Fold these 4 entries.
Entry 1:
Amino acid sequence: DMSKWIGVRPRELDKSLDFFRKKGYITYEKIRGKYYFILFGEPVEELTLGDDPG
């Protein structure tokens, strides 16, 4: 478990990862208690595709 390895509680880890996700440095998913993420060197803006052009 990643949170045990780095010495933080899972909830604190979720908050930290969410902070970096909002800044555009990371994308991640938590699936069945495991984290899968991509770290970017520069902030990246995610686009949501849809029918609405606005």
Entry 2:
Amino acid sequence: MHVTYSCDWPDQARPPEKMKHSIKLVDDQMNWCESAMEYLRDQTDMLVVGVIGLQGTGKSTIMSLLSANAPEEDQRGYVFRAQTQEIKERGGNQSTGIDFYITQERVIFLDTQPILSPSILDHLINNDRKLAPEYKLPHTYVEMQSLQITAFLFTVCHVVIVIQDWFTDINLYRFLQTAEMLKPSTPSASHDSTGSSGTEEGSEYYPHIVFLQNKSIRDEFCPRNLKNMHMAVDKLMAHSHLKYKGTLSMLDCNIFPGLDRDYLETEVNMFLLPRANQSRVRGRPSLLSPPGLQRTPHLLLSGLQASQPNPVHVPLSHTILTEKNWFHYAARIWDGVKKSSALSEYSRLQAKQHCQPVVMNTGGNGCPFPT
């Protein structure tokens, strides 16, 4: 007798569909997109990881490696599209808005367009794009876009990774402080979906923040320099409510076997990643050549993945959210960020200030933004 089995799974039991590539959560016009909803489920065991950084620092590549891809794979197949050589040569940016990807382990990754991007500014100026009335100057608009995205991530992510490709730009920390100041307040329990209690009533939510130094050079792995880098970031972030300590440690990756755990007296959440595609530089062995460091990118990425905090211990709101609840919550936060009176007032003050003579700061990558 031939027996057939039904494949009609209940919604809760049906295996989640695997995403092949990222999709838009926020498009290049800063509009919310609904397409991610079909990949989400009514369960609470999830983690949300976002990323910010300046142009060309490797945000999309890092997010692809953390979520779905391996360093040896062809970058053209990465789930988050990285800059092509052509885009690099003309100084353009690949990512626009906010891209969404969820793994089968229920980790949501949010990749973002570069903050304070000179290519976005150049596009606005050269294409004579009409700005909203509240944004009188193109660079004010670019700055406000960057603040909106960052303030949004600070509200809807468990972990926010800040990627740099050199150490360090003081203006980036000023930007983080501004975004933290303008971050939306955690909505009260009455505005959240029904569920178990999350953060205490009246308390404000702040995410874990990880500083990732990408494309690090050999000298930056020197213990003395590493210690100085941690001390510098600790002082720059001393007055921040962002959780910049205690989330992860490079010393757990066993690439500094001679160092005691208390060597980094002021250890912050910082990881260093060397260039993964160079075994020799100018005929001399690079950082990846010594046997002990050949697998450094794999070790650090594995360490970063293993150190991601348990979302149960860091609820985003006053109720525990399911994946679908989170999507609706994030949509409401994004709408609130775009309509924020605090951001509008900050924009007005910035526009007023920019009417005065300013000293232009090119930063480490030549980005022309006023100081």
Entry 3:
Amino acid sequence: MYPLTESQCGEIIGLYKNKQSVPKISRMLKVHRTTVTHTIDKSQKILKTIVKDNNKKSAEEIKKIFVEKTNNELIFNKIKNYQQSNYQQSRTLPHHVIPVIIDTDGDNDDFFAILYALKSKNLDVRGVTYHGNGWSHAASVQNIVDIIDDIYSGKNIPVILGTDYSLYESDRNPNTLGTPGCTYQKSVPEGAAGGRRDSDLLYGLNRKLRLSKRIWYDAIKDFNITQDFADLIDSTIEATGKKPTIIAMGTATNIAMLLRAFPTYNTKIERIVWMAGALDVAGNVFTVPNNTRAEYNVYLDCVAAQELLDSDLKITLIPLDFTNKTPFNPAFFDKLSTLTSFYGKFAYQLLKMIRATWLGGELEFYNGYFLWDAKAVGFVKNIGVAKVVSNRTLAITCTEDKNYNGQFVASQVLTKADLEIATEPIVSDLVEDSPFFQDFIDVLEY
């Protein structure tokens, strides 16, 4: 590399970005016997090689290696500035396309939402973060990798593995080894009726997926959820020119851990859309009969949930109050049965297995299954939403009492978060023709 003064670097970048002629730039640089392409492009190639060979290192570590190789810190900063400007000019997503990061616990319901998001043209899925303290074990990440690598072929979308325990557990026992021994994880069934085993294997249907060449261990970036999550947010902003929306489909553990480690990253997130909570309807923690008001995603890590409310984030809750107003019905099931695409057929087969094993039988299935997480994706797409209200007067119960934990209650202290709640979906006279259901079918079929 040829070291350049700050003013020369500034002139080079300016001329290069303004598409001035190479001779004009070369004349300015004749003392150094170089050109803009030599200065910028060669430096970019060096930096690209360093990043490729050290993809698990932080930005500061990458910079240190670059400076050691080139003896030129100034050009590193200029390259970064140029790249950021270039991303803004030529790689910014169209206005209607929303970059999203999916945070999931791998429950079978999540896979409908993941498919819906991946196949929606106005969503750009930048990565998936996974945590094993919900309704599946870490190994089910392979199912997510297989689906992503098929739909987003060749893009190597990051899949980041988070913790196997809740903050409620780790704050009390830093040496915890995670599920299934954690206090609240005992409330998630391991066996039948949609428990972890069924989520891990998708009722055995994961054998029908188009398998990725990446095995799950190689597909994940690392086991450092906080740093990798932060890097994913940074790369999303750099590549799209937009802050990501995080669609949360499980506990808030990964997001809370990110904010503990990097509190300023609340400014780098557009908003959190979280399928969670029960406000004025009954909860769904059926394994704790005396807790009638909690919803699993809040209940399984009440510490993380409260920390989310205490953050400076824009948060939209998609509670059971919203999801349960558009019930799954036989007519919609019949519509699904007509789909001819690979993932349309897969979704139908998976729902058939869920219906066949549902506690209480088919009638209870139609009364109790609502495609919860997919409706959070629909909200981000602005499909089928009639009413959203602001409500910052909520808190979450989080004590030692499992019969009381994980409930939203009224609070006189306003949440720090800018909290809004989806309350009313658009429901057609025939429920199966409601905007959400129709869009879900259309997206899976294309």
Entry 4:
Amino acid sequence: MYKKILDNINEAILLFNRDLQLIYINTAGEVLFEDSARHLLGRPTKDLLGFDRSLKDDLLRCIERNEGFFDHEHTLNLLHKKITISFSATPIVDNPEEPEVLVELQQLDRHIRISKEEQLIAQEHISRMLMRGFAHEIKNPLGGLRGAAQLL
């Protein structure tokens, strides 16, 4: 039941052991990394999340101190692409001998692109309104001059 839920959410869910090797990945994670769980399981964080040393240190600290952390708009350099994600890590200490860290990744590139497109649409709307106002102001004086010329 839980696997069914995890495999049908949009966030990539990754579970790493104390050595920061991948021991679980959901379907959204497979889509994000463009590879199957069979090929990804057992791989270290540097293979999956790039060579970001601070990220690896944060994950180790998360396990050691039993403290989660969150990073919004973190850029990951994957082997085949560069993406912007929202990143959260939560320690799981069911067995103190085998601590794990649960990582949730939500790709923000699409959200950022949509936000930028919405800003462009709003700016275009404002530009149209300004141009209409300018056109009206230009037309009015010309109409007044035409009327004065007819009177003469």
